Amino acid sequence: MAHEQKKPFSDAVSVFHGRWLPERALPVGYAALIDAFELPVPLPISLAAIGPRHKIYQADGWKLYTPRHQPEPNLTGHLTFALRYEGLDLAVLKSLFQVTGPQPVTEIVRAAPTGAYARRLWFLYEWLLDTRLDLDDAAQGSYAPVVDADLQWAVDGTTSPRHRLKNNLPGTPAWCPMIFRTPALDAFVARNLGEEARRLIADVPADLLARTATFLLLKDSRSSFQIEGENPPQDRIQRWGQVIGEAGRHPVDRAELERLQRIVIGDARFVHLGLRTDGGFVGEHDRVSGAPIPDHVSARYEDLPDLIDGLTAFDRGARQLDPVLVAAALAFGFVYIHPFEDGNGRLHRYLIHHVLAERGFNPPGLVFPVSAVILDRIDEYRRVLETYSRRLLPHIRWRPTDRGNVEVLNETADFYRYFDATPHAEFLFECVARTIDVDLPAETAFLRAYYSFKAEVSRMIDMPDRLLDLLFRFLRQNDGKLSKRAREREFAALTDGEAMRIEAIYADLQHP
């Protein structure tokens, strides 16, 4: 049953839903619609308002437009403003359509049957709600895109003759996160980081590259455990490293994710394997009562099969987007859904490797140690996760269970289907860029120096690999000099001349 608008569109304000504006201004677009229809959705990262100045500027999570941009104070005016200037927020639009019902959208289309914004609203209503409005197929109007590719990343898409539109949405109604175009993302995509990496290793000898790849793989595996606060034995790190090394070889679907979870968990005596059959949250428990204190509430277990199917369809379908954009949406979307009782974090990072490898982004056989970079930037990583979870949490109604878990009381699936993955894409691009700009050259240079050092010293002295490794490590730890302790103990057999020559070999390799 459709409901009327709950309250009039607001006047100019200084504070909107707890968010201060840079100056007193009139909320418009999505902000106005959320307020007037009391939509139970997270506020978008950036909101729009009409300010008193005659210039457009951004500050404090607001973009202020000039008085000449002010829309008509009605549903059509604010919807048109939102599509024109703010892009698509599918969660807001679906919630709005559920409140208004079909009549207002039908009237908008009948009033402007050839209008591109009217036809986009018509398409989105039918696409999001899986229904058909009482409208004849469009007979006129040039084909316009559903997604404004100047505002948000889109695919080439398919035509919708009924609406005379190009459906260039990157996902399906079951799962479709959106990513805004930003100067940072435009610059990263233009760099073509995958090609940069291939050029970087083009002249690295094959045996050295193989050793580099092995080291980076283990580094990523170890870091992924450390992010979760675990310090497992070396054989478990190596096993997970082997799994990461095979990323991209198998399509990701529910069965594959469950197979990977079994590998991640290992000893499953105390863990339920497969999709959750109960609530889930990330956070703490009260020390006295054991009650949950969530920082993030996971998707309802009843919604998990559809969400995972939607997520895997996105992975198969978003082929025209840059692989890093897809990896960010897929991996962070997965961790927000949190489909398993345990193992979500490592699988979330595995999905990054899956997309990059499956799309041929990394050079063959080489894994970018993204988890190692995330570990180095762990505070920023958590802030990126919170860009959505903090806005989401107030809109989830839950109660504690007698087992210290949460039971979600409202419909929440759309919150996990449609989220803004822009901060996540920027963060992941920064991580991938650092592996190419810093980690890959540094590791290759280190191994080149290491094996050259061993070869040079071996020509001087017959020394087992174990001692050669120790010798190199001591020199690294002591600025290229053998300490008095090392000369008196492990390497007492070296003459002064040999020690000086070894130090010179090391110095030459560090500063060729």
UniProtKB/TrEMBL annotation:
Residues 252-401 form the Fido domain. PROSITE patterns: FIDO. Transmembrane segments: none annotated. InterPro entries: Fido, Fido-like_dom_sf, Fido_containing. It comes from the Bacteria. Coiled coil: none annotated. This is Fic family protein. It comes from Neorhizobium phenanthreniclasticum.
